[in-house]
Amino acid sequence: MAEPPLERAEDFAGVPDGFDRLWTPHRMVYVGGQDKPKDSSAGQCPFCRSPQRPDDEGLIVRRAEHAYVVMNLYPYSPGHVLVCPYRHVADYTDLTPEEVIEVAVLSRQAMRVIRAVSDPGGFNLGMNQGRIAGAGIQAHLHQHVVPRWAGDLNFMPLIGRTKPVPVLLGDTRAALAAAWDEHAGD
Predict the structure, then answer these.
(1) Residue 75: predicted pLDDT
(2) What is the rounded distance in angstroms from the CA atom of residue 54 to the CA atom of residue 141?
(3) Facing residues of 144 across strands?
(4) Whether the predicted pLDDT of 184 surpasses 60
(5) I want to staple 99 with a disulfide (CB 3.0 to 4.6 A). Which of 95, 115, 125, 184 is the partner?
(6) Where are the beta strands (DSSP E) in 9-166?
């Protein structure tokens, strides 16, 4: 005889199934579209607005001439940063040569600084170009620099049965910004 279906949230509590759960309810705002731009204009773009604020308010870690490094508001792991050109441009092929170089240099420097501050085991680097490729904000190109640790995220909660330790974005931004000059290199 089949068991009756579970109908209430409390029916799930305490039911062992061999998996630790990774609960990230803060990401539902992003998934639901609440903080996404209403259109693709620069006026709606968070990557155009952030540099107009003081670094601590805009979560900016480092500014350069053509691009900057900012904390991801919905990080996959502690220290997840984005490298963005200041210019409101959607496609990598539309970057100027100077922007391409600076995005690459800042990504490399971010990796060095994150290593010095939190010693991750590796990194995921990437750009999602277009909605079908997973770009949450399509109108303004951004490079993800995601630090990774053994058993941290994505498939790891299922395979490694571990949970990430949350760190406040402001605290992480301050630590990375403070370490930049010493550890970024060229």
Answers:
(1) 84
(2) 21
(3) 82, 126
(4) yes
(5) 95
(6) 60-63, 67-71, 81-85, 122-126, 143-148
HSE on the CB side for 50, CA within 13 Å?
27
Q: Are 145 and 81 in contact (CB under 8 A)?
A: yes
Domains and CATH numbers, the chain: 41-183 (3.30.428.10)
- Each residue of 92-129: pLDDT tens digit? 999 999 999 999 999 999 999 999 999 999 999 999 88
pLDDT for 6 equals 46
Structure tokens at 67: 């691009």
Q: 62 phi and psi, to 5 degrees?
A: -150, 140
Rounded CA separation 145/82 (Å):
6
63/86 Cα distance (integer angstroms): 10
Residue type, 93: T
Residues taking part in catalysis: 142
Q: Which structure tokens are listed for 162? A: 């571990």
For the beta carbon of residue 5, count every other beta carbon within 10 angstroms: 6
